[in-house]
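User: structure tokens for Iodothyronine deiodinase, please.
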Amino acid sequence: MSKIRIIIQKTLILLYVSLYVAVGKILMILFPEMMKRYILKQGQKSSIVTNPKFSYENWGPTFFSLKYLLFVLKVKWKRLEDEAFLGHNAPNTPVADFRGEMHHILDFMQDNRPLVLNFGSCT
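Assistant: Done. Predicted tokens:
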């Protein structure tokens, strides 16, 4: 993938996420109860709302903050690097081993042979 294409994609992601956060922040100020219901509904997609030690007041206000914006940008930009395209080099995606240690996928290649992953023995 060309560098220009990556720059354009990152710029579009920046604009999209910035607009999303700005609109969300404005709506949180104008309609706090409606946004609380919306955020709690989004939290139902994960286990965050079922944890009794983790109330909305602990995590809800962090939505649409600068930290939130920077985190979402980091994740979305990182995903751009994980795309694979036919005829191009594979991405060197980070992976964790069974001990939780982080590596990169190319760390497991030997002598430029293709990497074959066998998940059949992991049952």
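User: Anything notable?

Assistant: The CA atoms of residues 109 and 115 lie 6 Å apart.
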